[in-house]
Amino acid sequence: MALQIDGSMTVRELVGRYPQTRGAFEESGIDHCCGGGKSLTDVAGEHGLTLCVLVDALAKCLQPGKAGATARDWYVAPLGELVNHIVETHHGYMKTALPRLSSLVPTVLKAHGAHHGDVLRQVQGLFNSLHSELTSHLLKEEQVLFPYLVAVEAHLRQGAPQPQASIGSARHPIRQMEREHESAGEVLARLREVTDGYALPPDACPTFRALYEELQRMEADLHQHIHLENNILFPRAIELDERTGENG
Length: 248
Ligand SMILES: [Fe+2]
Ligand SMILES: [Fe+2]
What we know:
The chain is mainly alpha-helical.
């Protein structure tokens, strides 16, 4: 059954149900994680596209046989499975990418500082702040918020003991995580801006190229990671948490 895409649908709805549409949004520079609540009509206008062009690009992604067409539907999968997927795929990726970038950034700055120091020092400052923000963010999710959410689901679905709500309602830590996502999204946008869309200078060596490629991989992964949390995990978790009846 062909999906009818219209301008009132939100970016979040499309990417949530049809992850294969991410590429079309990314190619147009449309934020599908923190800004996912906007309608297609609004984002098309903001990015100088006609709605028709955007809808056509999205429809192409939805053609049968396109990669991602059989991706897991995270709106219905058990919450614990979604949490595992986020931790293994996205937190796991960050835990290898951040140290790799931590050593690449100063190496490239040292080699190219004479001609590109201006850009590379800004990249270093932005990356360092993202690195420290994300390191503590991932820990808070893994050690506090996610175990609580998994326990709430086990309580409601399997009759496991009601979890001790040491964090009070899930709403407060979730709001804090969303604020941290916004901040990370802003740093990613600044990185793209100061590097002129990761445009390599003509004298860039392979290590310089590797740095920009890894930063772009990190950007894409973080966008998908934040999308899964902001648009699917957190709304589902708040709904479940409220059903425990003790948080109001
Ligand atoms: Fe996360
Ligand atoms: Fe997060």
